[in-house]
Amino acid sequence: MESIVLIGFMGVGKTTIGHILSEKVGLHVVDMDEYIVEQEGMPVREIFERFGEGHFRDLETGVLSKLLKEACIITTGGGIVERKENRKLLGESGCVIHLSAPFESLWERLEGDPDRPLAQNPRHEVESLFSRRIPLYEEARTHEVDTGGKDEEAVTREILSLLGRN
Ligand SMILES: Nc1ncnc2c1ncn2[C@@H]1O[C@H](COP(=O)(O)OP(=O)(O)O)[C@@H](O)[C@H]1O
Ligand SMILES: O=C(O)C1=C[C@@H](OP(=O)(O)O)[C@@H](O)[C@H](O)C1
Ligand SMILES: [Mg+2]
């Protein structure tokens, strides 16, 4: 079976749903943020503070190209689509599921989260990042699952259904 990649904005549920999906489809899951944190031996926040966002994006590209060679579920960070190179890598993989949601519901989950450096910015900046990224997710995805108003189990069921696994 090919890889399944989850993309989407911060807080939409990629990490959470990837873990639930992993149990249901019997593929192991790798969360890119967790992988990078382990590899670098420091939290994402500290990587941003000490080395800058550009360095974190370099790490993401390296990890994504490595993981796409495995058959697994990959839960990306929300900024994976920022780099053209990453969008190209995603385009070469068969199943890229965009989890989407209205900004309002994401902001409720993100506001004040100390672990997400970009969520520390004022609301209007995070919202404009959200708007700017929408076409990038659209470019990279093969499928979209609208998570608005659905709990984690319902989102997982919808993914299983589009994979033909229900
Ligand atoms: N469908 C959902 N409905 C409500 N809360 C959710 C849903 N999916 C995830 N969450 C919650 O939102 C928060 C962010 O989820 P997370 O999986 O870390 O998102 P991401 O990896 O996309 O940034 C977590 O507290 C999680 O429990
Ligand atoms: O959107 C982004 O640029 C980021 C999203 C985060 O992952 P989540 O989408 O899992 O929060 C993490 O990779 C980092 O804080 C940057
Ligand atoms: Mg995550």
From TrEMBL:
Keyword Zinc (UniProt): no
SUPFAM superfamilies: P-loop containing nucleoside triphosphate hydrolases
Compartments in which it is found: Cytoplasm
Root EC class: transferase
GO CC field: cytosol
Binding positions for Mg(2+) per the UniProt entry: T15
Cofactor info, note text: Binds 1 Mg(2+) ion per subunit.
Binding site for ATP: G11, V12, G13, K14, T15, T16, R116
Record keywords: Amino-acid biosynthesis, Aromatic amino acid biosynthesis, ATP-binding, Cytoplasm, Kinase, Magnesium, Metal-binding, Nucleotide-binding, Transferase
Reactions that this protein is recorded to catalyse: shikimate + ATP = 3-phosphoshikimate + ADP + H(+)
GO molecular function, one term: shikimate kinase activity
Taxonomic lineage of the native organism: Bacteria, Bacillati, Bacillota, Bacilli, Bacillales
Annotated function: Catalyzes the specific phosphorylation of the 3-hydroxyl group of shikimic acid using ATP as a cosubstrate.
EC number of this enzyme: 2.7.1.71
Biological pathway: Metabolic intermediate biosynthesis; chorismate biosynthesis; chorismate from D-erythrose 4-phosphate and phosphoenolpyruvate: step 5/7
UniProt name for this protein: Shikimate kinase
GO terms, biological process: amino acid biosynthetic process; aromatic amino acid family biosynthetic process; chorismate biosynthetic process
Residues that hold substrate according to the record: D33, R57, G78, R133
Highest taxon in the source lineage: Bacteria
Family: Belongs to the shikimate kinase family.
Subunit details: Monomer.
Predominant location category: cytoplasm
Family annotation (Gene3D superfamilies): P-loop containing nucleotide triphosphate hydrolases
